[in-house]
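haha ok so turns out i had the wrong file open the whole time. this is the CORRECT one, sorry everyone. sequence first:
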Amino acid sequence: MFNTTTPSYLQAYRGMNNNQISKQKEEKEQSKSSNGGAKEQRQQQRYPETPVQQTGRVVENSDGEQIQIHTYEPTYPQIRQPQQIQKPNTFPNGQKPAVDYSKGEINIAQILVDFKNTTNAIGAKKDVMEEVFTYLALIEHQAKKENPDVFIIKSNLKNAAKILDVYITETLKKQSNVVESWIDALFLQKINFKFEETEVQNAEVPQTTPETQEVKATEQKQEEAKKTEEKKEEIINKNGVYIPQDKELKKMFIRSKKFASIDNVNKALELFNSTLQYAKEVGDVQTQALVHFETGRIFDKSNDVVGALDNYQQAAVLSKDNNIKARAHISMAQIYDDYVKFEPAVDHYCAAVSFAGEADNLNLQTKALADLADIHSERYDRKNSFMFMDLADSVARETKNKKFIGSTLSRCAKISTRLDESAKALSYYRESTRYYEQANAVENEIKNYQAAAQIMVKLGNKTKAKALLSRAYSKLSKLDSNTSELTSDLNSQILALAN
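then structure:
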């Protein structure tokens, strides 16, 4: 249940009318849509004023007077620590593996064998097993290369583990992350990611354990009630938007979203709470997932990262819609990214790429890939940055959306600039501008010219910079909207070059 009382982080909303709240939201959205700096803007919103802790100690000066020395240490918001992971020397089904993971080096081949045995022991359905084994096959293919990519292997292991955990959660109707915890524990051990089949010891894993018995018993009950459940199947309209079958539930959900859209936080949380309880009563799991996702967004906007992460995670686990799973994971990734938590951010971005791919959502998949390029560029990891940029570029072109392709290429240009790859950045800007021109996205063209001009100034080529700004200026007449701010920016750049 959600706490419907107003927590301290929402007190700022008291005393504001809906118009003020809507204006605040509009200003926030405009800042997000501006060219560049999206992550920095999110970070400033999450902790706009860094609080300080004052510490001090008393000392005597040369005159014998006692004085207090003060020091100031910044304190940042804390993200809830993950639960303690289980010891790796057991399978998720509680059985001991053939090899003692706590001793020596583990070969990836052994992990794959044990993972398959675990999947069989859990008694997963055919479609679940096929999906898991597909990931394991990709891992084996990668591990057999001369130089296996550890990042890809780990990502696919995590994805396979999540699929099993979701299956267990849905089957038993209780949260499970036992498989993923097992994999996390393995990552703490010394692993040889080069596939060596001779090092494999086949584990004799019993097909029946207390946990698998519970899963299979639940499955039988579900099969018996299948005909009844079919009548209550979730309905998706032609646009792929989920619509609750229960009319009252549909009405409650829409009303909750209306209050959320105008940032009436207290009322929205109260209504979403009621909607969640009713969705549980009628057994609509997908609406439960949607409620958690929307609630996560409310907490996210209010900078309650713990509440946001909890609800996004619930949405990712409960939803059967891969689009919602992908959006939930990318939202969690951005939170961890903003708080400079590299590993969990990368894990969630990779999960978003995977689920967006399953949903054929090329736009979201491109965004997640570009985010991965961005986060690696902050560590000056050129290899992975360029790999993810190339992937983002490739997937974006599949959309055939010229403005979206232009936007993706422009973002790749910014990342290249951060990596001091001026020539590559200029190439990206050139191609991005070509796509923007075809899409008649004039304002985006102008911003590209401005960014390219800045690179030219950095390279010492003021003549070329002036030519680029001149092209940008010539585009102003094609804009329908108010151009005063853009004109002012251009004039400032031109004047700076004249000095």
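The chain is about 65% helix and 5% strand.
again sry for the mixup
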